[in-house]
Amino acid sequence: MNDSTETGAADDTAGTEGTPAGAAPATPFEWVGGEDAVRRLVDRFYDLMDLEPRFTQLRAIHPTTLDGSRDKLFWFLCGWLGGPDHFVERFGHPRLRARHMPYRIGIAERDQWMSAMTQAMAECELDVELQRRLAASFANTADWMRNV
């Protein structure tokens, strides 16, 4: 496993448009729009998971209430994107695979996670190039998380 799979997003932001004077943001966290934008993304992701029947298998491996899951993904993504390391400050190294090992994660769950996140990124109107780069990084991690 590449350590960036677990601890950092694709951070090749050279040539990024949409920032002041056309300058590239220093991190994907800045490109996303900071904590408020990460929170909106995470909330939309979990709203979709909770509401859309096509995400039933993914929803089934989560707790009844998604509040804790929302917070943990928000804390993790902030740091993974190059922002504040909220997750690490609270829990230490993410150890994503180990933390998810108790849950059955197969191809269907991986694909549903990716579909929900892809839809959330589009609905949150992230920059199209950023969506592409994040989707590639998320796909690597999501596939690595499979345990069945």
Quickly describe the structure:
With 148 residues, the protein is mostly helical. Helices cover 61% and strands 0% of the residues. It is globular and about 45 Å long.
3D structure, described in words:
This protein is mainly alpha-helical and 148 residues long. It contains nine helices and no strands. It has helices spanning 3-7, 28-32, 35-51, 56-60, 67-80, 86-91, 96-100, 107-123, 128-144. The radius of gyration is 15 Å and the shape is globular.
Mean of residue pLDDT? 90
Portion in strands = under 5%
Number of DSSP E strands: 0
Helix content: 55-70%
Strand pairing plus helix content: what structural class? Answer: mainly alpha
Specify Rg, calculated over alpha carbons: 15 Å
Termini, distance in Å?
Answer: 18 Å
**SSE pattern, N- to C-terminal:** HHHHHHHHH
State the major sheet: none
- List segments where confidence is low: pLDDT < 50 over at least 5 consecutive residues: 1-5, 12-18
Q: How many helical stretches?
A: 9
Shape designation: globular
